[in-house]
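User: Show me a protein chain along with its predicted structure.
Assistant: Here is one chain, sequence first, then structure tokens.
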Amino acid sequence: MRIRTALVTARSAPAHERAIRTLMQWNIAVDEAMFLGGLDKADFLREFAPDFFFDDQTRYCDAAAKEVPTGHVVGGVMNREPSA
């Protein structure tokens, strides 16, 4: 079974370059990449209708979970403990 993967980010240019370069460095291929430029992910996901959505920020997960099956990635930068 082939899994179709898509990168969906609220970022836009020039931040998209970092994401693309990172995927290339890690040798990860995605079928599609959507840079929403600040648009709401949940609205986009409702129309895109993925089988599953993952994000490292709970605010995006909470909104997306109302529209599509969603999982929280706890290893993201936004989930690190603040330095003391």
